[in-house]
Fold this sequence. Notes:
Blueprint: H1 2-18, H2 20-33, H3 42-54, H4 59-76, H5 84-98, E1 116-121, H6 128-141, E2 146-151, H7 156-169, E3 173-174, H8 182-195, E4 200-205, H9 212-229, E5 236-242, H10 247-259, E6 264-268, H11 278-286, E7 290-294, E8 302-304, H12 307-315
EC number: 3.6.5.4
Organism: Segatella maculosa OT 289
Domain SRP54-type proteins GTP-binding: 289-302
Amino acid sequence: MGVFGLFNKKKKETLDKGLEKTKESVFDKLTRAVAGKSKVDDEVLDNLEEVLITSDVGVGTTLKIIERIESRVARDKYVSTSELNGMLREEIASLLEENNAADNDDWELPCAHKPYVILVVGVNGVGKTTTIGKLAYQFKKAGKKVYLGAADTFRAAAVEQISVWGERVGVPVIKQQMGADPASVAFDTLQSAKANGADVVLIDTAGRLHNKVGLMNELKKIKDVMKKVLPEAPDEVMLVLDGSTGQNAFEQAKQFSAVTNITSLAITKLDGTAKGGVVIGISDQLKVPVKYIGLGEQMEDLQLFNRKEFVDSLFA
């Protein structure tokens, strides 16, 4: 099998285990939806709609999936309920593909210039700083030189937490005293990273959604200041969401995308919940690719999102 094969096998096991609750829940509901039916008719489609909505796929995305399956049923005249699973799988995979959810298999960075800058946003409590720590670990393991910026300066705990991650992973953390100007921390981080030939920079930001105007201004200021050091920064604005909150994560995603231009998503805490369907809905509604998913506490449990593997695990 080789080392790579073993790693992939372990990764797949983590994914399967992480999506287990969602899968069981979706399967139970699907089984009930087609009970006693041999062909896909209106009643089955109505039941399927309910299955998807109650699996946190979201109303808009569910209607899109149902519409696509309806037109396939109309075209093929007779579709057996046993074929429904395969159809769902295909339609969900193609939805994810349309939203540019890549089949990421390695930790390469998608640009020629260095450092690649990721500005990380999200409300407190979603696992934002932990995700940054795990990303730093994965990038470092892939041979990248990583810098972290502690620009969530409003919470002493946030600066402390990211410093602990920096020590644990063995990467430098650029920070100032609590209450410092976040843009100033971002500026220092980029200058340091650039001077020291870093490959990737991850910047933690404060997550105070209740004060949207303040947040909007702050993120704009951070971006403007970064451009003084690196005109192309940030390369990515990544929103971290807690998948276990289901529809609440949807709301946060909508509110954040109203405040700033989100270019990628990291969806955490999928292992303890049956709400994994939220990955499909959020990506579709925001038209933003899911890039990383969190499936447990371990460093390795943050994975690159691979839509094919995700759909396979969900409908295996």
